Every structure is written in C-alpha cells, then in structure tokens.
User: Fold Putative aldehyde dehydrogenase-like protein from Fusarium oxysporum f. sp. rapae.
Amino acid sequence: MAPVIIDFSAPNGHKWKQTVGLFINNEFVESKDASTLAVVNPATEEEIAPVALANEKDLDDTLQVASDPFPSPDWRRLSGNYRGKLMFHLVDLTKNNARSLAAAEPLNTGTAYSIALEGDIEDAIKIVRYYAGFTDKSFGQVNGTGSNELAYILKEPIGVCGSIVPWNIPLNVAITKLALALRCATLIF
Assistant:
C-alpha cells in the first residue's frame, strides 16, 4: 500500500508533510492498483517522490463522483461573499506556507528557490485574490430586445471537466484552474 502523505525535506533543510495521493471525492487516496510514478527533479534527474498514478478505474470513480448531481451542494449554496471570504483565507494559508511551496517548486520544476518564492508563489496569491474578488459579482446580463420581450444571459456550470496540470509551472496552472472553479461555486473532486 503506497502512502498518500509522506515526510518531505528540501535541500535547504525545510521539512513538511506532502500529499502524494490522488484527490478523489474530497480525499487523498492511492490508486486502485497502487501504481506510482516517480517525480524527478529536472535539474538533478534524481527522484524526489513517488506519486499515485491514476488508472482507468480511478478515472471512472472520479467521473462517477463528479457526475452525481451535486452530492455535496453546500459549496454552491454558499453566498458569493462567503466563498470569497474562504478564498481570501486560502490566500492567507498560501502566504503562511510560502516557504514550503517555494521549496517544493524548484525540486519539481528546476526553477530557483528565489524565483519560486518571489514569482510563482506571489503569482498564485494574486490569482486567488483576483478570482476571490469576483465571487459576489456573478450576475446575469439583460439584453434589450424590444417591447414585451426579455432576453438574458445566465452563466451556469455545464458538467464534469477534466484538468491536466503540466510539470513546468504546476502551482500556477493548478491554482488558476481551481480558483476559477471555486469562484464559480463549482465542486472540485
């Protein structure tokens, strides 16, 4: 059985617990067949951690959970104002854990620690702040069509969406996709 959380240590001595499992149905789990994939530091070509490797059964389970009609409607029923407050809390958590995030990024991407801390982490914070500021600003658009008629545009979720995060800037790509989904009250499995 592969662990879903490991003790992790960066070359600068910074230590933390790192999740390495698949995130399915609001929890980190190992893959159904316990397969893992070695994450390799591109700068040194050394393995830094084994992470869970999803297979077809894992994908099927994820799609099933995501396809259930709002199995946990709490998030989408929260007011935009409150969702924004929670997202601003995510900004605070990111700031408080900036050293851990910045220590992990160079191992995963080969970038310098200072660039990760002052660039990638700061950008991630800006991204979440940006979308958090829009959580209470989703309104339908009314278009004038003439007398006795009304046309409006209302944006709403259309269904299950898959998201692939590349190796080169995983934090910012992931946070952009997640922040936008959270801003729109979309459930994330």
About this structure: The beta strands are 5-9, 15-19, 22-24, 27-29, 36-40, 47-52, 141-143, 151-153. The longest strand covers residues 47-52. Residues 1-68 form one domain. The chain has a mean pLDDT of 84.
